[in-house]
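#onboarding

Welcome to the new folks! Below is a worked example of what a typical request in this channel looks like: someone posts a single protein sequence, and someone else replies with the predicted structure as tokens. Don't worry about understanding the tokens yet, we'll cover that in week two.

Example request:
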Amino acid sequence: MSSGSQQLRRYRIARRDGASVADALTFIANGIDAREAKLIEVEDAKIPPPADAYELLITNPEAAGCATISEPEHLPMPKHDDEAA
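Example response:
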């Protein structure tokens, strides 16, 4: 049985460590929105998640070959026909 995605596990860890819902959502950056967080909170209160729900699936994303988030590069936008050259 799975105890959730990497994002869910990171959210639960942040909440367990004392972060507010808003701070936990900011910490994980994406993958869970406020509506889903509310559902998670209700469900976890009814049925507490097992211990492995607080273990990350991937602890070193670079070593696992996962994509990482970096600052976006500013690329020149193409000119449109209706723009003056």
